[in-house]
Amino acid sequence: MPELPEVETIREFLVEDILGKTIKNIEIKVPKQFVGDPKKIIGQKIVAVNRKGKIISFKLKNNYYLSCHLKLTGQLIFAKKQNLVFKNKIPFNKTKMLPGNTTRIILSFTDNSLLYFNDLRKFGWMKVAKKPELPKGVDVISKDFSVRYLTDVIESAKKPIKLLLMDQDKIAGIGNIYANDALFLARIHPMKKSNSLTNNEVKNLYKKILYVIKEGLKYNGTSDEAYVLPDATIGKYQDHFKVYGREKLPCIRCNTPIKRVKHSGRSYFYCPKCQPIRI
DNA sequence: CGATTCCCCTGATAGC
DNA sequence: TGCTATCAGGGGAATC
Questions:
Q1: What residue ranges define each of the domains in chain A, with the CATH number in brackets?
Q2: Is the pTM of this model over 0.90?
Q3: Which of A6, A40, A81, A86 could hold A2 in an S-S bridge, CB 3.0 to 4.6 Å?
Q4: A226-235 per-position pLDDT tens digit
Q5: A278 counts as catalytic
């Protein structure tokens, strides 16, 4: 599921691929996934490729923005021309060519290159508006995300710390993978009440959050499901998971089997020995 | 208001 | 083999 490292990796690739290009046409195959007036983007040059949290926004020459959220299974894949055969299999698509069975929206540019928005589960969206769609929270890799800010947010919340880390209205960019892994490295139980963390725990957690996000970026994100880079290659952070996705596998630190519990419809992964609920 | 559940969707998987 | 029920999950809406 695309979180900050995945979306930032996509953004960096798209700066190379489509920044400065002019949109020739848009084909919307699933109308519910596109919000706004598609005519507003036709003939417009892309003058910036931005990101905040998990949302990517293309700024257009006419000052409109095309924003995109990939949710669980969204993909943004670039092709220099039609009928391009990709070297890699595209997850959840039957062939190595696009458009595929999960292609929902297609942008074409005046140089005949294309950007495909694929999304198996149809939860993602694109939106055209005069302003970019922005999460309220502070972006994790912006300079506004400080120990001070994290402390303020944590001290004023009672909910489980993992839920807080994933709250996009507070901190933008962290999802289930990096929240679970950061808490493991910080040796904090994911269900621990936010306002029960000590100052040292918060400081340490801050470091571990930045560490796992940087690890995610270093490996071009996590491709354990649908996520691929815009060139259809895969990220590799899944080979470096700390606890996420490791239910019943030995803890990388103490060999204790990793536990997985469900709460509020989401999975919590943790090592019962390294992350005791009481400290 | 805070906490929890439902819902959107479809491929993978388990159960019979 | 083949059909059916269950599950995963970001985030907004509905409900408790």
A1: 4-129 (3.20.190.10), 138-270 (1.10.8.50)
A2: yes
A3: A6
A4: 999 999 999 9
A5: no
